[in-house]
Design goal:
The chain is an all-beta fold and 123 residues long. 0% of the residues lie in helices and 50% in strands. The protein contains no helices and eleven strands. The protein has strands spanning 2-6, 9-12, 17-24, 32-38, 45-50, 57-59, 67-72, 77-82, 91-98, 112-113, 117-122. The strands form two sheets. Strands 2, 4, 5, 6, 9, 10 and 11 form a seven-stranded mixed β-sheet that branches. It has a four-stranded antiparallel β-sheet with strand order 1-3-8-7, with no helix packed on it. A hairpin with a 6-residue loop joins strand 4 and strand 5. It is globular. The model has no long low-confidence stretch (mean pLDDT 96).
Length: 123
């Protein structure tokens, strides 16, 4: 699966931003998707994941209640809606695909990665 992430930018604290990730190649319905992020000077961390149908979602505690993951298999797209953002959300965000239909939180479970889109939250 080839992934193309977009939608990053500069946003003020308490604002919103929506990230998109378009997939091509393998059947999108065969893969679960995830979002990860890497803040400056820190290791990449899990943000959210969604199963193949969109019925099962899971979030890191740091974003639960503020971020929403969704997907449309007809459009081969997964989104990350980011609401009530805080400066700690500043990072490069990566979408990833794993060759299974079930969700996963570990990076090693994913074998396809997008190029990353940068999000900066100003206070």
């Amino acid at each position: 699966v080839q992934l193309q992430a977009s939608g990053g930018g500069l946003v003020q604290a308490r604002g919103s931003l929506r990230l998109s990730c378009i997939a091509s190649g393998r059947s999108f319905k065969d893969v679960a998707m995830g979002w990860f992020r890497q803040a400056p000077g820190k290791e990449r961390e899990f943000v959210s994941t969604i199963n193949w149908s969109g019925a099962i979602k899971y979030y890191a505690d740091s974003v639960k209640g503020r971020f929403t993951i969704s997907r449309d298999n007809a459009e081969n797209t997964v989104w990350l809606q980011m609401d009530s953002v805080i400066p700690e959300d500043t990072a490069v965000y990566y979408c990833a695909a794993r060759p299974r239909q079930a969700i996963a939180t570990r990076e090693a479970e994913y074998n396809s990665w997008g190029q990353g889109t940068e999000v900066t939250v100003s206070s």
